[in-house]
Description:
Elements: H1 5-27, H2 34-41, H3 48-51, H4 55-77, H5 85-102, H6 104-112, H7 123-128, H8 131-143, H9 149-171, H10 183-204
Helix pairs in contact: 1-2, 1-4, 1-6, 4-5, 4-6, 5-6, 5-8, 5-9, 5-10, 8-9, 9-10
Amino acid sequence: MGNSREEKRADLRARLIAAAQDQITQHGITGLKARALTTQAGCALGALYTAFEDLDMLILHVNARTLARLGETLKAALPAPDAPPEAALQALASAYVDFACANRALWIALFEHRLPEGVEMPDWHRKDHAVLIEVLIAPLHALRPDLDEAALVMRSRTTFAAVHGVVLLALQGRFVGVPLDQLKSEVTALVSAMTRGAHLGQDAG
C-alpha cells in the first residue's frame, strides 16, 4: 500500500511545494525556477508537470500554505470575545504586520503572483483568501451593529485593504511607503483613526 501511485504522487507534490516555498523564501517569486526547485525536490524536471498542471499551479499551492499560516496567526491574535472591538482590530493589524515582515518573500508572492491572461483562479484558492476578511467580521459588527451583512463584508474588505496597502508599500520600499521602523506605529495610528471614524459614522447614521 505504501508504494501506491497515489501516495507517490502525493509525496512528489509535497516535496515540490516544500521546495518551491523554500526557493521563494530565498529568492522571491521572480527567482523561482523550475529546474532549481525540481533539483531541490529530488525529481526530474518533467516530474513537475505530472504533479501540477504548470508552475503557476504549484505557486498557488505555496500561496495556499501561506494563507493557511496567516489565517491561523490572525485567529490566534484575537483577544477574548468580550474585548472591545478596537482592541481586536489592533491585535489583528499588529499580527498582520508581524507576519508580513517575518515572511516577507512568501507574503509578497501571495499578492504579486498573477495567473496568465485568460486563466481563472480556481475556486478552492479563492476560498483560501476568505480568512483575511472573515476575521474582521466580528469586531467590525461589534463596532458597527447598524450595518447589514453586505455592508459589513464591504467594510471588512475596505479595512483590510487600508492596512494591507500601508504594509505593502513599506515592504516594497516605495518612496511613499512608511519606513519599516515606523510601520507598526503608523498602522496602529491608522486603525485608531478608522475605529474613531466608524463611531462617528454610526452616530451620523
